[in-house]
Amino acid sequence: MANGDLRVMAASTIVAIAFGVSAFFVPTAPPAELSQPKPTATASADPTVLTDLNQVFDPSQISEIKIDIPKKSKKVLENKMRDDYVPVTFQIKIGEKSSPVMNIGLKIKGTTSRQAITTTWAYSSFKLKFNFGDGNKNQTLLGKKSLTLNAMNQDSSKLHETFAYEAYRANGVPASKTGYAHLTLSKNIPKPDRGLYLVLESLDDEFLAENFTDITQHLYENNTNFNEIYPGNVGENVNEDARFNIKEGWKATSNRSDLRSFAKGIQKSGKKLWDYLETNSDRDKLISLFAVDNFTGGWDTYSGPLINNYHLRFSNQGVMTMIPWGLDNTWGENWFNDGKSTRWVKSYKAPSKAHDDYFFPVDKPTAAFPGSFLIAYGAGVTDSKKMTNYQLGRGQLFRK
User: Fold this and answer.
1) 193-204 pLDDT, tens per residue?
2) Do the strands 366-367 and 193-201 form a parallel or antiparallel pair, or are they unpaired?
3) Engineered SS bond to 105: which of 25, 132, 285, 354, CB 3.0-4.6 Å?
4) CB count, 10 Å around CB of 354?
């Protein structure tokens, strides 16, 4: 065999061996179903979108809230006694972040403090409902279905509610969180720049779920001044009543059996009442609530002289927890500490500062409130020192 043929054969053998070796060491491609997907870049958060509810309830900063009120909605809101939610658009901005523009429901809130949307000497306070209207059943603001905006008309300090709610929470009493907002309404509303408002956490099912681990059967809202928890005040088995409304739980339990039973049970006295409260209320929280009522001078509370502004929450086991509300009256009322108190009673000449600072002794069954001087004046008493005798009885549970 010629040398050339041997070289060709040797080269062919080397190539064949090389291919064999490479085939042995190079793995075959894995089946398609086992192949790993290509990594994708993580989407960065939009720095302009509001995502943190804690910012809404942060009193150290002021958000911007803009509410546009259509003509038809304005017509309803011009009547301060209308209690209807009407459609509006809403947006909140905190720093550089904002919510989307949302179609929501709005209504005027309050009792004696209610004001029409067109009133400018004192501003309206509002309830906002985010899951309002067709197609918005699941709409929330960062998980909240509702918010409350308080005009703080009775609180020129703008601090009473924030620090009072904080005092209750610090003492273990379930109470709303707060924030602040600069509120601007649409230009069809007189004085659309409404200034500083309190952003208040509403007492709704989200609040209840956050503050209680057991099941809420009912949340009752007191509806009027001097509303004691007596059996005769409970009302019929209806959702709304002149004295107590059922704010949560009516659809699931359409009766007032829990409130009716509790109102009857607390007519006991002494040790029998104390033992009843141990099993039928969160007694420790109730005592803490009364303590904060007194510390903050809350004359518009249940343990104050007006027996007002409180909610009663019942678990499905019938255990009651009292929840505070409407705390702009705390830390000393300053309606009459502005040098213009004579506008309330034109012929009244006593110094305006005689009617400030309503802090209560915890061991007295009566207390004063800013209207006490009007009662005294109507009785012919003009000496401010003697006016302190014109006080009112406080809630029976507190007195007992």
Assistant:
1) 999 999 999 999
2) unpaired
3) 132
4) 16
